[in-house]
Description:
Two copies of one chain form a homodimer.
Chain A: E1 6-7, E2 17-19, H1 42-46, H2 51-58, E3 63-65, H3 68-74, E4 82-84, H4 86-92, E5 97-102, H5 113-125, E6 130-135, H6 139-150, E7 154-160, H7 161-166, H8 168-176, E8 180-184, H9 190-198, H10 206-219, E9 223-225, H11 232-251, E10 258-262, H12 267-283, E11 288-294, H13 299-302, E12 304-308, E13 319-323, H14 345-352, E14 357-361, H15 363-377, H16 383-402, E15 407-412, H17 420-427, H18 438-445
Parallel strand pairs in A: 5-15, 6-7, 6-9, 7-8, 10-11, 10-15, 11-14
Antiparallel strand pairs in A: 1-4, 2-3, 4-5, 12-13
Helix pairs in contact in A: 3-5, 4-15, 5-6, 6-8, 9-10, 11-12, 15-16
Family (chains A, B): Belongs to the TrpB family.
Subunit structure (chains A, B): Tetramer of two alpha and two beta chains.
Organism (chains A, B): Nonomuraea spiralis
Amino acid sequence: MNERVKYTLNEDDIPYTWLNIAADFGEPAPILDPATGAPITRAELCRTIAEPLVDQELSTEPEFEIPGPVRDIYRQWRPTPLYRARRLEIALDTPARIYYKYEGVSPVGSLKPNSAVPQAYYNKQIGKTGLVTETGAGQWGSSIASAAAMFGLTAQVFMVGVSYRQKPYRRALMEAYGAVCNSSPSPLTAAGRAVLAEDPDHPGSLGIAKSEALEVAYANPDLGYTRGSSLNHVCAHQTVIGQEAMLQMELAEDYPDIVVGPCGGGSTLAGMCFPFLRDKLRRGRDIRLIAAEPVACPTLTRGRIAYDHSDAARLTPLSRMHTLGHKFVPPPVHAGGLRAHDISPLISRAVENGLMEAVAVRQHACFEAGVLFAREEGIVPAPESAHAVRAAIDEALRCREQGQSKAILIALSGHGHFDLAAYEKFQAGLLPDDEPSDEDLELGLSSIPDLARA
Amino acid sequence: MNERVKYTLNEDDIPYTWLNIAADFGEPAPILDPATGAPITRAELCRTIAEPLVDQELSTEPEFEIPGPVRDIYRQWRPTPLYRARRLEIALDTPARIYYKYEGVSPVGSLKPNSAVPQAYYNKQIGKTGLVTETGAGQWGSSIASAAAMFGLTAQVFMVGVSYRQKPYRRALMEAYGAVCNSSPSPLTAAGRAVLAEDPDHPGSLGIAKSEALEVAYANPDLGYTRGSSLNHVCAHQTVIGQEAMLQMELAEDYPDIVVGPCGGGSTLAGMCFPFLRDKLRRGRDIRLIAAEPVACPTLTRGRIAYDHSDAARLTPLSRMHTLGHKFVPPPVHAGGLRAHDISPLISRAVENGLMEAVAVRQHACFEAGVLFAREEGIVPAPESAHAVRAAIDEALRCREQGQSKAILIALSGHGHFDLAAYEKFQAGLLPDDEPSDEDLELGLSSIPDLARA
C-alpha cells in the first residue's frame, strides 16, 4: 500500500478548451424540426437555448475555448483526483490495474456542474434572467440551481414526480440554492395538465419533464432552457474529465486499455471517453471504450438507430440516435440518471461506427459492486456510477481468468450520499431487479416516428 | 473573480506528525477513576482503548509521528482545499478577507476520518478484531464504519435513537460499509435496558450511547472502544487540518487575524486552531481563536469548569473541563455533532486561560448563514459547520462597520448533504430556535459530581 494511489494535477492543468468530437465524425446527421420534418433552423433552436450554446451544438470545430469566468469557477473543485484502486484490486485478486476518476468532490457531489456552470454563464451573458430545466433524480437540477445562484439567475426545475416524492432531499438542496422545484407532471403547463387529466397520479418521466420545461421556455423568452445530458454541447463541456484523466494517466506512467463509463443520456461517458476516442482516431491508440447501461433501460443494446424525440410531448427536435422510443417507460431503477429512452447522438454514432461498445448490467449486480467498492475504496458510488464500477469489475475478473494485466479506467461520476435509501433496500433484499418486458419494449419502439430518412 | 480562490498543496505537504497541544499547557489535570475518584491508571484506560491511543492521550510530547499506512490513506482526500470566499465577501460587502478550509471532500463528507483511520489502524495493530463506538448524527459512526472496513475490522455503532430514526440514510451508509448500527438506548446493554425500563420511548442521548458502547467494550476485550471527539488523541489527529491551513495561508501570502470553528466535543476546533495556538504561544502571533457553539448547548459560555463524566451512566473517567452536567439534555437542534454537555479538556483549558474565545449562536442564524454560504460559494455546509460560518459572517460584518480588513479563516468541517431535511424545515419556517430553560440548565449543572478537587 506504499505505492502511489492518487494522481493530482495543478490548477494550470485544468483544460483551457472543451473537446468537440463532432469534428472527428464527418458530416453530422441534420436535426429535424418536429413541426415540419425538415432540417431545423438555427433561429428555431435559439428560441429556447442560448445562442452561444446553439453555436456549440451545431459546430464541427475541434474545440471550444472555456471562458475565463467558467474556468475560474471550475477551479473550486477541478482538477478532480484520479486514483488507483489498489485495495479493490487486492480484494478482486486481479492482475488488472484499476483506476478511477472521481467527480464526487464537486460541491453538489457529481459531474453535472461541469456543464451547468457554462450553461448559466452563457445565458447570463446574452441577458436571460433565469433558467428552466428538467431533472430526473435531481443531480442536474441541483447543479443548475447552484450555477444559477452564482450568476444571479432564477432557476425553475421540473423534477420527475416519482423522484420528487422519493428524494425530498435533492429537492431541498435545490431550494437551499434558491431554485423553485416543481413535481412533474405539474398543473403549470399544458403538457403536464394533459398527462394529469388522463392519470392524476402519474409518476412522471424525464420525457414529460422535458416537455414541461420546454413549454415554459417557449412561453418566456427571458428564460433559457438548459439540458443536463445528450446534447453535443453538454458532451463537450464534460470533456474536462477525460482531458484531465489523460494527463493523470501520464503521471501514472500508464495508459488505459479499457475506459468504462455509465451511460444514460451519455454525458459522463462522452466526457471521459471522447478525449481518448480522439486519441484512438488520430494516433491509432488501441483502446476499448465501454458504455455501461442498465438492463432496465437498454438504449444501446436493444434500441434502434432512428430519428426520434427526446421528450414525450414531441416538442424537442428529432435527432438520429439509438432510441427505445419516446413512449418507452423503463422500470423504476434507482439509477435515475440512466433512465433515458434516447442517448447522445454522438455516443450513438460512435457505437454505430464500432468505436465504442455497450454492455447492459443488472441493478442488483451494480449495487453489489457499489458495496464492494465502498468497503475497499471508502467511496459509496452513486447508482449511476456503480454501473461503470460493475462493468470494470467484470473486466478485471476476466483479466484474472486470462492472466492479463490490463489498465482499466472508470468514470466515477458522483457519490451516493443522496442514494442511500436504494443501498438500504438492496442490503435488505428489497430492491427489485426488473428488466422491461418484450411488450414494454415493443410499445416503446412502436412510438418511434416513421420517417423515410431515418 | 480572476484572482486566485483556491490554495492547493501537494501530497508531500500532508503533515508527517500530529501536533499535541498538551505539550504547551504545562502539567495536565489528572483524569480520575469513576470508581475511586483517584487518578486513573494507564492499565484501566487500556481496558477499553487501544494502548497506543492511551499513550497519546496521556502524552505531553509536542507531536506524534503519523504511521505510514495512515498517511497513505489520508492521501486519498488530503491535503484538503483551502478557499478564499470571494463571492461571499462581495455579497457581504465586507473589506474582510474570508477563507475556508473544506473537509467535505473526504469520502464520507466530513473531517471525522482524520481520526477514525488512525484509531482503526492502532486497534488492528494490537490485535483487536473490531471496533465499538457511539455516534450522534452519524458522521463519526460512518467514518468508523469505513475505517473498520479498510482494516478488516468489525464495527458496532450505538446511534442516538432520535437520530437513528430521523436520519436513516446515515445508518444506511454505515451498513453499506458493513457496520452494525443499533438505536440507543438499546436492549443490548444494561445501561440501555435501565433507560428503556424507565421510558420505552426514550429518544436517547450521546451520553447514553457512550455508556452502551463502553459497556460492550468492557465485556469484549477483543473490541476496541473509539471516540470521535473531545479526547486529547482525537484532537491531535485532527491537527492535520490546521497544519495544512497554515501552509495554505502562506501560499495566499496572508495570515488569519481570526480563526473560527464549530464547537461540540471540540475536535474540529482543536484540529484547526491548535497549530495556530502553538504559533501564538511560541511566536507571539496576534490571533483570535473563536469557538462557535449553539445557544441550545452552551457548554463554554454557560457551563462550569469542573470534573465530570462524559456519559450518562458515569462509566467514563472524570475529566476537568467546561460542562453543563452529564444529565443535561439539550433541545434537539440539528447540529447533532454539537449537542455535547462536555468538551475537550484541552479546549476548555485554552478558554480558561484566555487563549480562545467562545460565542454562542442561534440555530436560525446558523441556517440563514448556511443558505447564504451555499448560494455564494456553492457548498451547503453541515449544520455544525454553519455555526462557524455564522460567527465568521458576524466578524466580517463587524469589519465592514469598522472599515477594517481582517483575515478570517473558517473550519468548514463537512458538507450538509445528509442534513437537507433540516434545511428544508428552516426554509419552510418550521425549524425551532430553542434555547434551554434556566430550569434545564440548573438540572444539568446540579448533576456535576461534588468533588473537592474540582
